[in-house]
Amino acid sequence: MKKLRVTLFDDNDLLRESLTEVISNSDAHEFAGAFPNCLHLADDILATHPDVILMDISMPEMNGIEAVKLLRSHFPDMPVLMQTVFEDDTSVFDAIAAGAGGYILKNAPSHKLLEAITEVYQGGAPMSPLIARKVVQHFQHVQHEKESFRLTTRELEVLQYLVQGLPYKQIGDKMNIGYDTVRAHMKKVYEKLHVCSMTEAVAKAIKFNLFKR
After folding, report:
1. pTM
2. Most exposed among 35, 85, 128, 141, judged by the fewest C-beta atoms under 10 Å?
3. pLDDT digits (tens, 9 = 90+) for 167-181
4. Which DSSP helix (H) or strand (E) runs through 140?
5. What's 147-191 look like in SS3?
6. Domain that holds residue 29
7. 100 and 159: one domain?
8. Contacts of 208 by beta carbon, 8 Å cutoff, 6+ apart
9. Cα(91)–Cα(70) distance, rounded to whole angstroms?
């Protein structure tokens, strides 16, 4: 049976040594390499030929989220399992959005870590239970807030043109309505989205994916 080669990036020397030992002692995994930063990320990966990357989220110079974004441009299919000592919501969602395949806390037992490495290689999305709960709660909140906006079809149409960068006059031309009517629609959009500017309205529309029903 093929052993999964694992390359890890972590700036904590003791933890890096501990993880190296855990991986090296596994029957199903093979230690490929360990690095204290991601400054030479592409070269390090080419040198170690990993099947899975174990990535610390908090590192100097280039953090794990930035590293995953870079990875996706050079190695789009490389499985990445993120590790962190904290459960910061923003970091979790940023890492997932960047392209991380899974997310596990550093205090997870060794066997759970090894299981997660295998799972992410097989196309799964392993997450520590607390993190999985946060992800579910986040999307429940997003859906609830999205539904609470109650934009009409016309208001959504105006907003979508606005996201595309069209000025009010062109929006009016496309919708066969007057300039003042466009402004009236946008006033309602501002009220329902609880925003005060066009930039905020566009940002919120994108954040909550308002055009996908």
Report:
1. 0.64
2. 141
3. 888 999 999 999 899
4. helix 129-149
5. HHHCCCHHHHHHHHHHHCCCCHHHHHHHHCCCHHHHHHHHHHHHH
6. 4-131
7. no
8. 142, 145, 146, 149
9. 16
Which tokens in the block code for residue 108?
A: 């997870």
Q: CATH number of the domain that 172 lies in?
A: 1.10.10.10
The size of the chain, in residues, is 213
DSSP state, residue 34: E
- Pair 93, 16 in one domain: yes
* Residues 52 and 102 reside in one and the same domain: yes
Sheet holding 102-105, edge to edge: 29-35, 4-9, 52-56, 80-84, 102-105
Tens of pLDDT, residues 111-162:
999 999 999 999 888 877 766 676 666 665 555 555 657 888 898 888 888 8
Spatial separation of the C-alpha atoms in residues 65 and 56, rounded to whole Å: 9
